[in-house]
Amino acid sequence: MRQENSKNLSIVIPVFNEINYLYKLFEQIKIYFNNEKTEIIFVDDGSNDGSYDVLKELKAKKNYKFIFKLLKIDINSGKGKAIKTGIKNSEGKYILLQDADLELDIRDAKEMFDMITANKDIMCIFGSRYLSGKLKKNNYFFNNLIGKINSLIFNIFFSQSLSDVHCGLKILHRSVIEKIKLSVNDFGIEIDLASQIVRNDFFIYEFGVSYFFRTKGQGKKITWFDGLKSFYYLFKVRFIDNVPSTNLSILYSSIYMGFIGSHFGMGLGNTLFIIIFIIVGATLGINFKILSSSIIFLLIFIGSLFGKGNGTTISVILFFFLGLYLARKSKKFFLNTNLNGYF
Description:
By secondary structure, the chain is of the alpha/beta class.
């Protein structure tokens, strides 16, 4: 059984075919984290280039003070699976996630650790490659663009202001880890982790870090397909991974907003209006349960009874905002009552 706070820090490092970087990574870890209260957890995710043998060699040297844990997943299962395996076997008060490919600097990891331990109010820090005034090398336009778009969508979905949701360097207090249950096995783990942290009302701080991009020829694993899959994960964590009452609200508000959208435009324009209104409805369903959402629907219906042509459109929009206002008021009014689950 884990002794509470017996170790101050657990560094979880997923490894898949990183033989060219492990010796240098190990030396950097010894520079910044060579102490008895730190455990380094390498998780080899089915490497076939000799990475696991190198890790066994490094562990056998015993020329370090930290605790060296080496775990192995026989078949390559993805970064998320490796991270989950490492976290499950960690014991530290803080858990730091660090990639093995040296794109992110161990020195920045040490700065983040010093920062979170110096301020007891901070439970979570994400590294950001876009906030940094530090050294940066990146010439992969598409990955960079997808990363920024995903961060923007995440911020819209979860009312956050993160600049880099995909950065692999993160540090979390164990109380955060104990509140979440990660379910993604591949690179979508970054979105899964961030969404669950936000859902559990932990504030995510950001810290600018150095970034040294490597090419596919140098062992880069993430591809354009992973970038496209990230859009699915954003949709999943926002519109599927909810409690049943929220999913019911999303379905309900999407249907009535889609119905309302069907009354606008003609032909292709009508289809676009329906799609847009369904998206708006799904977003409303996240924030308002059945009864408060019904207030919005009722006000929109009342607005549709006024005016003709463009006048009806303006009336619907005005009554929509009035419905939003009243829905927010009702949600706040019933916040601490038995009816809260319906508003």
